[in-house]
UniProtKB/TrEMBL annotation:
Family annotation (Gene3D superfamilies): 2.40.160.20
Extent of the signal sequence: 1-22
Keyword terms, alphabetized: Signal
UniProt cross-references to SUPFAM superfamilies, sorted A to Z: OMPA-like (SSF56925)
InterPro entries: OMP/PagP_B-barrel
Organism: Flammeovirga agarivorans
Name of this protein: Outer membrane beta-barrel protein
Length: 180
């Protein structure tokens, strides 16, 4: 039984290493931190600014494509009497098309989709806190090591008159990528 198990493990290791060498996988790990702003409905009259941060892991499938999974958290201070502080947590899968094959810097276009949690505390004590999971999409240009901007839309539901509203969230981030 032990011999059979050890042979199976060795075979799996061999197949995995062979597949990895043939596919020329390049795993990537990155961290990001930056600012975000939002403009939406009654928020337009206020100065909206927040911070974001998180990490991303992924795998280069070939020279021009990269699949990643990102986990990000961000805050937004709307300076509004009713909705003074929002927080977002997103789990996104991204598909990237790399525009160049440079080793250190990878400009790319990407599209992503995943789950977004919107936490919207109320200003008044007698109002409930919104804590909603919904779907989110991301798309835009980027650079793995450098600065990039994205246009993100999150759909949320809350008070009756605000159902189905989309929040444009413009982000400016510093991304540090480490290729393994």
């Amino acid at each position: 039984m032990k011999k059979c198990l050890s042979k199976t493990i060795l075979l799996l290791l061999f197949l995995t290493s062979t597949y990895t060498l043939k596919a020329q996988h390049k795993f990537v790990f990155g961290i990001c931190a930056g600012l975000n702003t939002a403009i939406n409905g009654k928020l337009t009259a206020h100065s909206n600014v927040g911070l974001q941060g998180g990490f991303e892991i992924g795998d280069h499938l070939n020279d021009n494509t990269l699949l990643t999974l990102s986990l990000k958290g961000s805050s937004l201070n709307t300076r509004d009497d009713d909705y003074n502080y929002w927080s977002f947590t997103s789990i996104m899968g991204k598909y990237r098309y790399i525009l160049t094959k440079e080793k250190k810097v990878h400009p790319y276009l990407f599209i992503g989709a995943g789950a977004v949690n919107i936490n919207r505390p109320r200003h008044h004590d007698n109002e409930a806190i919104d804590n909603i999971w919904n779907l989110g999409i991301q798309a835009g240009p980027g650079i793995d090591i450098g600065i990039f901007t994205t246009y993100i839309q999150y759909q949320y539901s809350g008070k009756a008159e605000m159902w189905g509203t989309m929040i444009p969230l413009h982000t400016l981030s510093f991304v540090f990528g480490v290729y393994l």
